[in-house]
Design goal:
- The protein has helices at 2-26, 80-83, 218-225, 362-366; strands spanning 99-110, 115-116, 137-146, 151-164, 168-178, 186-201, 203-216, 229-244, 247-251, 255-258, 262-264, 270-272, 286-298, 301-317, 322-337, 341-355, 370-371, 375-390, 394-410.
- The longest helix has 25 residues, at 2-26.
- The chain is mainly beta.
- It has 4 helices and 19 strands.
- The strands form 3 sheets. It has an 8-stranded antiparallel β-barrel. Strands 5, 6, 9, 10, 13, 16, 17 and 18 form an 8-stranded antiparallel sheet that branches. The chain has a two-stranded antiparallel sheet with strand order 11-12.
- A hairpin with a 3-residue loop joins β17 and β18 (375-390).
- 10% of the residues lie in helices and 50% in strands.
Length: 411
């Protein structure tokens, strides 16, 4: 019986050993990896080809995504770090026309003032000393088209304001002076008097319509400024309308007209007018008119002329189909000129006078006249006199140097 049990035990052990041997040949060993039809390799390490991880891509508004090159966040000015070299998104009905619209702001200084057009004639109230029209401010807008990567054409309108005739009229006059005591030789001296204050008006503006041409210099200076900054030069040609409003000058001193009772001698002393001796009699009295509290209004004009401008600047590429130009421009917009019509307004006092033959003026009193030491006078009342006359025009070249900015939106 014991032998039978031993035999059964031996049989079970043999079967178990056979099963373990067979399983060991088909099971996956610990720490090993199956590679193709080869046997298992390695015990504690695995040898696998290293797969290179692709950099993440960035979804953008641009036609071709770019790979991320660093960890700077995608907002604000850093966005251009990734996209400045990519083409802008082309959408909309004008997307294939290379069109853009723009607005401009500029300010600067003028280089010429409003003065007498004919400075050789100095008997009229008019300036001969204004050297500028003030500081202009310009606003404008327009549309442009990129003909190529380096050449743009623009249609624009600009309006410049802030200019003025000036605070006064510097009247010029020439005076003959003696070079020696005997006055055997003389010379002429020109003097400037700020006699007439501009009390109102005289604003100057200029409207400029035209076409502009802009050439990009990035092919020449690109290595210096980089891809985001593009230098350029430009030229504008068009039609200018220069307007000067009416301006009114105050004639503080007034003037004397008609028969002059007194004149100055060679030494500047006042004396009775010798030309009227024996002329102004009781039967033929003379009249002197004194103009006081005067205002002289020069009527303005809108002068239509051609104008042009020269420009240089840089273009800065922004986000969202936007560009910003910083520029210097010299505008030469023709002349601003008055019409030549002048309205004069004065209070006039008319004095009637005759020659006095009495050293104490008794003859004047007997005829109802007053006496001033040389003439028998009768002062009438004053009245307001307004006259329109044609005088010399005043004009000046509207030339300005301005700095400005231009914001462009590309469709």
């Amino acid at each position: 019986m014991k032998n039978k049990r031993k035999n059964i035990l031996y049989l079970i052990s043999a079967i178990t050993l056979f099963a373990n041997t067979t399983y060991s040949q088909t099971a996956k060993p610990i720490g090993m990896e199956y590679v193709g039809s080869q046997q298992y390799i390695g015990q504690t390490t695995q040898i696998k080809p290293k797969i290179q991880q692709q950099a993440p891509t960035i979804n953008s508004i641009y036609s071709q995504p770019m790979k991320r090159v660093n960890e700077i966040p995608l907002y604000g000015k850093n966005k251009s770090t990734y996209f400045y070299s990519q083409p802008k998104q082309q959408t909309g009905i004008f997307s294939d026309g290379n069109l853009y619209m723009f607005g401009t702001f500029a300010t600067g200084k003028t280089t010429d003032g409003i003065n007498l057009q004919d400075k050789s004639v100095l008997d009229y109230i008019g300036s001969d000393a204004h050297d500028n029209m003030g500081n202009p401010t310009g606003l404008g807008f327009g549309f442009g088209r990129a003909i190529s990567s380096t050449f743009n054409v623009e249609i624009f309108y600009s309006k410049y304001t802030g200019m003025n005739y000036g605070p006064f009229t510097a009247q010029a006059y020439e005076e003959e002076l003696c070079e020696d005591e005997e006055c055997t030789s003389t010379y002429w001296e020109t003097s400037i008097l700020n006699d007439y204050e501009n009390i109102r008006g005289g604003d100057i503006s200029s409207d400029f319509f035209g076409v502009g041409f802009q050439y990009n210099l990035n092919n020449i200076f690109g290595s210096v400024f980089g891809s985001n900054i593009k230098p350029y030069v430009g030229f504008q040609l068009g039609f200018a309308m220069n307007n000067i409003d009416d301006y009114t000058l105050a004639d503080t001193y007034g003037l004397v007209d008609g028969d002059l009772m007194f004149v100055e001698d060679e030494e500047g002393n006042q004396m009775a007018n010798p030309d009227l001796s024996g002329v102004c009699t009781a039967s033929n009295p003379c009249y002197q008119r004194d103009y006081t509290d005067g205002e002289v209004t020069y009527i303005g004009k809108n002068n239509k002329t051609f104008g042009y401008g020269l420009e240089a600047g840089i273009t800065l590429t922004l986000e969202g189909n936007m560009e910003l130009d910083f520029f210097f421009k010299r505008n030469m917009l023709g002349k601003a000129t008055t019409s030549g019509n002048v309205l004069s307004s004065y209070y006039v006092s008319e004095t009637e006078f005759i020659e006095s033959t009495d050293t104490i003026g008794s003859d004047c009193a007997s005829q109802g006249y007053g006496w001033n030491g040389a003439w028998c006078v009768y002062e009438g009342g004053s009245y307001l006199s307004e006259t329109m006359e044609q005088r010399l025009t005043e004009s000046g070249d509207v030339v300005m140097n301005v700095f400005g900015v231009k914001l462009k939106y590309i469709f």
